[in-house]
């Protein structure tokens, strides 16, 4: 029997996920885009609200790592927007036929 390994997320990843939820995106959408469960995201938002959100080991993070995390979050958002626009284009193209 193999023991499942829990995912470890950086504080930047968690903060970006919380930022996406706070900006109005639903937990389900953010969860799907980032690959974390709804419950995990809910817990992060709750911890952030209480000022208790931290990362694995809470070790210092370099500016490069922070930039990478920010860019990953932005990329996820842009991909989601692209997918929505593609679906809207297909929908309206069917309407014209």
How would you characterize this protein structure?
With 97 residues, the protein is an all-alpha fold. The protein has one domain. Helix content is 68%, strand content 0%. The chain is built from 4 helices and no strands. The chain has helices spanning 11-22, 27-34, 38-49, 63-96. It starts with 10 loop residues before the first helix and ends with a helix.
Quick check: average pLDDT?
82
Q: Give the CA-CA distance, first to last residue.
A: 56 Å
- Determine the structural class based on helices, strands and strand pairing: mainly alpha
**Major sheet description:** none
Radius of gyration over C-alpha positions, nearest whole angstrom? 17 Å
Order of helices and strands: HHHH
As a percent range, the share of strand residues is under 5%
How many E strands? 0
Q: Give the uncertain stretches in residue-range form.
A: none
Using the alpha-carbon principal axes, give the shape: elongated
How many domains is the backbone divided into? Answer: 1
Helical content band: 55-70%
Q: What's the number of helices?
A: 4
Task: Briefly characterize the structure.
The chain has helices at 11-22, 27-34, 38-49, 63-96. By secondary structure, the chain is mainly α.
């Amino acid at each position: 029997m193999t023991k499942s390994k829990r995912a470890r997320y950086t504080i930047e990843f968690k903060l970006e996920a919380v930022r996406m939820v706070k900006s109005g995106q639903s937990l389900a959408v953010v969860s799907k885009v980032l690959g974390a469960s709804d419950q995990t995201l809910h817990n992060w938002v709750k911890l952030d609200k209480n000022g208790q959100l931290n990362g694995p080991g809470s070790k210092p993070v370099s500016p490069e790592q922070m930039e990478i995390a920010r860019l990953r979050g932005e990329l996820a958002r842009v991909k989601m927007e692209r997918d929505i626009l593609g679906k809207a284009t297909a929908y309206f193209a069917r309407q014209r036929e």
